[in-house]
Amino acid sequence: MQVPSGFTTGLLIESAAEGRIAVGFAKDGVLMGDFTLSPLDVANMAAALLAASKDGADKLPARDGETQDSGALVLPSSFSLGPGMMPGQEALILSFGQSHLAFSMPQATMQSLGESMVMLATRNRAQ
Question: Which pTM does this prediction carry?
Fold first, then answer.
């Protein structure tokens, strides 16, 4: 892994051999270290980062008048449905190559999400 010209400090992420993902950290334009992850490692890391973000959200300072944007936009390879973490829950599973991330939610939330998706698809088809 090489630090791109003009890059100073931050995380570097790129595809690696055999379907793995390379992750490195650069400081002041110098690569401090790097390692590779399997697709399962990537999904677990993403889940841990999102869970920590959820857990720490109440510690963030309030921002007056700020609206929530859509966040980072990522196009998954595919999606599916599966069992949730607990009885009475279902999961929306997003796949990114061989990395899979499942979002568990109560059945009522899944139903509401599904209805919203159908309404959106129907509205776009009518135009």
Answer: 0.71
pLDDT tens track for 101-110:
999 999 999 9
Cα separation values, 57 from 24, 49, 53, 64, Å: 27, 12, 6, 15
Q: What are residue 93's DSSP bridge partners?
A: 80, 102
Pick left, alpha or beta for residue 34 (phi over 0 → left; psi -120 to 50 → alpha; otherwise beta): beta
In order of 12, 43, 50, 54, 55, the CA distances from 63 in angstroms are 30, 30, 20, 17, 18
Taking the C-alpha atoms of residue 113 and residue 93, their distance in angstroms, rounded to an integer, is: 13
> What pLDDT shows up at residue 70?
64
User: What is the spatial distance between Cα 110 and Cα 117, in angstroms, rounded to a whole number?
Assistant: 10
Calpha distance 84→105 (Å, rounded): 7
